[in-house]
Amino acid sequence: MLPRKAPIQMSPFEYAPAPESRAVVDLQSSYGLFINGEFVDGGGNAFKSISPATEEVLAEVSEATDADVDAAVKAARTAYTRVWSKMSGADRGKYLYRIARILQERAREFAVLETLDNGKPIKESRDVDIPLAAAHFFYNAGWADKLEFASLPGGANPQPHGVVGQVIPWNFPMLMLAWKIAPALATGNTVVLKPAETTPLTALLFAEVCQQADLPPGVVNIVTGAGPTGQAIVDHPGIDKLAFTGSTGVGKMIARAIAGTRKKATLELGGKAANIVFDDAPIDQAVEGIVNGIFFNQGHVCCAGSRLLVQESIAEEVERRLKRRLGTLRVGDPLDKNTDVGAINSKAQLDRIIALTDAGESEGAERWDNGCALPDKGFWFRPTVFTGVTQTHRIAQEEIFGPVLSVLTFRTPQEAVAKANNTPYGLSAGIWTEKGSRILWMADQLKAGVVWANTFNQFDPTSPFGGYKESGYGREGGRHGLEPYVKGTH
Amino acid sequence: MARVDVKKTYKLYIGGKFPRSESGRSYEVYAAKKGTFLANAAQGSRKDARDAVTAARAAQPGWASATAYNRGQVLYRVAEVMESRRPQLVQEVRDAEGLSPAAAESVVSQAIDRWVWYAGWSDKYVQILGGLNPVAGPYFNISASEPTGVVAVLAPQESSLLGLVSVIAPAIVSGNTVVVVTSADRPLPAITLSECLATSDVPGGVVNIITGKAAEIAPWLSSHRDVNAIDLAGAAGAEGVDWAKLEEASADNLKRVLRPAGTGSDAVEPDWTQTPDLSRLTAFLETKTVWHPKGR
């Protein structure tokens, strides 16, 4: 008889650090604006873009003044009139294919720079943001010479607006740039784009890609800056159409600013998505979906599943398994390939998350976090769960835009629908159940532009994205995403 | 001696009923050409508009969940009833727009045909506008159109029936419900249309019609939090209406805004005799995209 071995004492599974190399990124100390195919100095005060994980200064970036925006719009107009509107769709498409290929070739460089500037985990920028950005260019490239088949307003001869102004957020800097620029160019528009104040660097690297692709000067112009620069784009009389992704508050300001004009707008705004788990759901998969829904990209996702609606009979079990799972999330160095949750994008955003979670506690919800160690420098927030949340709590109504989940319960499908729709937002929703007819019934009832059933946070260039109600209007992605960029739509 | 005929009282149409304005007000309506007195129309108020929104909201889920086939048949029935009331509609359009008998006949014919055209879209536009999306992964992914909800409609000031039909039909065919402010000076064909609607199995509250002044009523609709969209067609030529202000107020809850035709700040009434495209229908739709994994 073999001797019995003593049971092994399991130790916490330790990972060695696995940092992605920064060497692939060649950061300049300062960047200008990209106008008419060249980098030029902006007229405003330069501002610093920092790494939110370390607070180190990455580069100085120009602030575009009204005059700079005017120069960018004029360059875009000239490029539209003289070059881009006269070019065949096939040739426009080939430029977009070139850009898609260069993004693939330089994918690692973009991923590392995105992670440095934004604070998101390298595994997300590497596996999600940058591949999807390239895919959006590839997808829209193919549309450029097939628009007459796209059932667009204008039918056999859809017409671009002309010059499009685009203002994008900091949560998916390159991906939002691709969502905006690729369909605009494919349909024959030229663009002036402003990246977010805290994440301008990949957009400036994209300007280099435009140069490498020999894109005609002025077709894409990148102006950096903060709110006033965005305002200058919105107000510029030479802009025919606006596309904005960001907060509902700013979206409403834009809608007011263009009221009474003939400028068109696409608005992709905030959300407070319900992720609804029924008692027959595959619990382990649902828990993974809940985690992906709210802790992907630190919860800096407009369509994040920030309200968990769980059927009362399984609420305790789901909470227990969820907390156990959150205990295994690795929070820290975004460049580490093992990191699950990176840095909060800015001090301002961290302050907002702290204020709202404090309100959650003071209004009576029960707060829990995974207790993980956090780095000394930078902006960090532990994955946090609130239970005992009611519909009137601010953490159930307002967009937190951070790694914070509010848990509510329900008894019947009707109650789940009523609670899910009890919000001015309507961007996305999740449903977890094994019952097919219930999925389809729920999907019909939910007032949301994207419904994920037994999955969450899936994105694809062919799939339209956008909200109901105060989550904005217009769709991005797919055939639908072309519509806002041709005349005759609203 | 000639018989003394019975004159019709023109009232509002809200929630399937024909009330007078809660304000108790009415205003005189005259024929366009001869200036003869036609009727005292109800002068709708803010409260009437809010009651109409309540009725439209209550009716919306039921109308949207009716099958597309059913909506198509109900709307086709409206055209049948319009045809049966043709002499009345022709006379009212003649009076309202100052047209010759032949021209008025033509306008009514086009209005009925337009209604039939839109009715036929009820079970077709979803297939045209949506479908399966070939995503790069093991997922079933489909996009389909849904109605946006309650739509406020400023009906055209000039075209009292063809224009009216051209703004109501595309909004309701998809399952929206509407609150319509009629032409101020030419409101009578709209009330006769509502009598057609009331006798055509269109559920009460799907179409609500308020006669009166857009300048008085439209601001309350544009700022109303329970209205999802607004069609500003009737701002063209409406006395005292600044469509920029209405669009600005609409931003409070991000209403979908269908601007009036025209360039710059001008608002012009389009030529409603032109064959329409789908733009007035798609203006009040939302696209919903549903994902589900595939697996064994």
From TrEMBL, chain A:
Active-site residue numbers: E268
Tagged with keyword Oxidoreductase: yes
UniProt keyword annotation of Oxidoreductase present: yes
Keywords of the record: Oxidoreductase
Gene3D superfamilies, A to Z: Aldehyde Dehydrogenase, Chain A, domain 1, Aldehyde Dehydrogenase, Chain A, domain 2
InterPro entries associated with the record: Ald_DH/histidinol_DH, Ald_DH_C, Ald_DH_CS_GLU, Ald_DH_N, Aldehyde_DH_dom
Biased composition (Basic and acidic residues): 472-482
Molecular function terms, GO-annotated: oxidoreductase activity, acting on the aldehyde or oxo group of donors, NAD or NADP as acceptor
Top-rank lineage group of the source organism: Bacteria
Spans traversing the lipid bilayer: none
Protein name as it appears in the record: Betaine-aldehyde dehydrogenase
Family (UniProt): Belongs to the aldehyde dehydrogenase family.
Region (Disordered): 470-490
Ranges for domain Aldehyde dehydrogenase: 40-487
TrEMBL record, chain B:
Domain Aldehyde dehydrogenase: 21-237
Superkingdom to which the source organism belongs: Bacteria
Coiled coil residues, start to end: none
InterPro entries assigned to the protein according to its UniProt record, in alphabetical order: Ald_DH/histidinol_DH, Ald_DH_N, Aldehyde_DH_dom
Oxidoreductase found in the keyword field: yes
Entry keywords, A to Z: Oxidoreductase
UniProt-listed Pfam families: Aldedh (PF00171)
GO molecular function: oxidoreductase activity
Alphabetized SUPFAM superfamilies for the sequence: ALDH-like
Gene3D superfamilies, per the entry: Aldehyde Dehydrogenase, Chain A, domain 1
Keyword Oxidoreductase: yes
Official protein name in the record: Aldehyde dehydrogenase
Organism (species): Knoellia subterranea KCTC 19937
